[in-house]
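Suppose a classmate hands you a notebook page containing two proteins, each written out with its sequence and a corresponding row of structure tokens. How would you begin to make sense of it? This section walks through that situation. The first entry is reproduced here exactly as it would appear on such a page.
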Amino acid sequence: MARQTQEQVEAEIAGLPALSLEALRERWRTLYGNPAPRSLRRGLLIRAVAYQLQVKAFGGLSAATKKKLREIAVAAREGRFDAAVIGPRVKPGTRLIRVWQGETHSVLVLEDGFEWNGTRYRSLSLVAKTITGTNWNGWTFFGVKRPGSPSEGRDGLGRFNGPVAAPDGSRVWPRSRRGRQSGAAPAVLAGGADA
């Protein structure tokens, strides 16, 4: 099947609201390969079919984005969801500096975006693209590292999680003198990883 143009996809999406519920369910089956959930309301069904049409025509989320979304879902399900994991990585007022092709660029982090050369931007990636002329992940371009991940025993703010309390309420740090002397097994950190 030939790849659809943007205009063809837009026209097909525009026609979705006119389809019957049965036709929408059939379109879902064609795109997703399985029947649509019976509980799915018409509006969401239209949006999901429209999304999948765009994925088929132009590609979907990157593997890294899918992985991040899965991590967020697992964290939320386990009750350890921390908005800081997906929120801003730097505080407003922070100045990010990068030398690019011999020129130093300074970006001020704002509450609702970034400021570079007196112009406000909604994302750091837009600043990086303006500086370089090519698409960049803004966080990578400016060398901003993520705080420690739960797998490293850190919460979304980069703070270290202590070992989970034992049934008697005690906490033994496996790398402490007491932990080594007692031969305690490595404690499981709150983030779910071994120490």
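The notebook's second entry, a different protein, reads as follows.
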Amino acid sequence: MTAARSLPAVVLDHSAFARVILARARPGSGRRLSSDTLAEFYAGLTDGRLHAAPPFRIETLFSARTAHEFTAMSERLDSFAQVGADANTWPVAERTQRELAEDPAVSHRVSMPDILLASIASQHELGVLHYDADYDLLAEHTSLEFESLWIAPAGSVD
């Protein structure tokens, strides 16, 4: 993701969001997202291009250590455009897992949250913003139709 390329409408994965939070919390330490990438992320949040889906919310809320933190985090996630799962999401996810199992070139051991998030993205014609190679695998080796977008090149940030 670069400032020169406009971020399309996407579902956000926790792997990307965690790197945004880390870059904000400790900007001078380690390999962090660039200021241009952060600016593009916040522009996408402001104009409704970043969507929160249930798997992302659950993964993100898992890190809350207290009820107060959980509530504050949940309210923060409410500021994202929301996109949900429906009755078709589970069969789509199961079909996706079958496709992975049937492909001898890949392992079907992709996490359930990643499969569900990619299924939701495909159903809603959204991309997935992430920092996780599983989304490239899902985009390339299954019938799901979504754009796999890295928030930064693989291996470039902590």
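A careful reader of the second entry would note: Helices lie at 14-25, 35-46, 54-61, 67-77, 89-102, 112-123, 134-141.
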